[in-house]
Amino acid sequence: MLGPVLLAVSRSDRMRRLVAAAPVTRPVVHRFVAGDDLPTAMDRVRALADAGLEVTLDHLGEDVTDRATAGATRDAYLRLLEALDAEGLGKRAEVSVKLSAFGQALPVGGHDIALENVRQVAAAASAAGTTVTCDMEDHTTVDSTLAVVAELRREHPGTGAVVQSYLFRTEQDCRALAVPGSRVRLVKGAYKEPASVAYQDKREVDRAYVRCLRILMAGGGYPMVGSHDPRMISIARHLAREAGRVAGDYEFQMLYGIRAAEQARLAADGERMRIYVPYGADWYGYFMRRLAERPANLAFFLRSFVPA
Ligand code: FDA
């Protein structure tokens, strides 16, 4: 019941200021966010790579409303890719971008501004021997984001898309994306969406996830299974085998700080396992979505306000 409330306040500037100012917030945030700056994030990447895990890095930020901040997001990713290249980590780590942080929501020319900014990041990623995956945000952005991915793929075929099983349209999108060379991360979806476009019942979202998995595994693309759900993971492994795929013809992805033991177990079992590692100072929206997903996370956060 609290989930929708948390998702609503995840976009409130007033709550952003209140939560960010609370002195006890930081240790809890750092359970889900790798650090505030690039050097700390690079330490985490090295540690994860040493443990046999792969990484996708997210420089936190979203809903940018001016062109200068969108340019600053692009520059932060260029610095990140430079650092990955300098350490030869391009084979183990890629980057995930939110187009709203690249200017997509700007009222005039937002789509083109975001495309131009992210094009530079995709070029830097290719030069560093790695790839970009475009995260999916709320349903109003899906057409624009998939169009950006299609455009980037012309020059950088490894560019990945994300699809959300809670949206009614997604099975159709999966069919269109399940083609050779296409990298597709399937997730359940983390935004507050209306009943006109998205399933509201968790069981429906799970059933849709399985239908989408089936399409992606049977298709010609590279499925990236973004879920912590043990049932989805076991079904994905079964469908992969049924489709004649071996580990490395698909991969699992989980978020930093969530089910770390399971991440290690899957990697030890021979699966390709990639960890989504967010870093940066603008953690509020990301953090609130993690709290909304699971009451236990919210309880953990609230307990931190109680003096020991
Ligand atoms: P579900 O929420 O049903 O949980 C299943 C089980 O997983 C739980 O019972 C619990 O054990 C564990 N679990 C799940 N969430 C947890 C949490 N926060 N803390 C602790 N345990 C938890 N969304 C989106 O809209 N756009 C995007 O681009 C992305 N990108 C993305 C990348 C990657 C790599 C992942 C893993 C996820 C995303 N997401 C996302 C988020 C996604 O949409 C979804 O909200 C979460 O992954 C939670 O859904 P699950 O599939 O994990 O299952």
From TrEMBL:
Q: Where is the Proline dehydrogenase domain?
A: 42-300
Question: Do you know which PANTHER family this protein is assigned to?
Answer: PROLINE DEHYDROGENASE 1, MITOCHONDRIAL, PROLINE OXIDASE
Q: Where do the coiled-coil regions begin and end? A: none
Keyword list (alphabetical) reads:
FAD, Flavoprotein, Nucleotide-binding, Oxidoreductase, Proline metabolism
> Pathway involvement?
Amino-acid degradation; L-proline degradation into L-glutamate; L-glutamate from L-proline: step 1/2
Superkingdom of the organism of origin:
Bacteria
Q: Which reaction does it catalyse?
A: L-proline + a quinone = (S)-1-pyrroline-5-carboxylate + a quinol + H(+)
Q: Which cofactor does it need?
A: FAD
- InterPro entries documented for this protein: FAD-linked_oxidoreductase-like, PRODH_bac_arc, Proline_DH_dom, Proline_oxidase
Q: What is this protein called?
A: proline dehydrogenase
EC number of this enzyme: 1.5.5.2
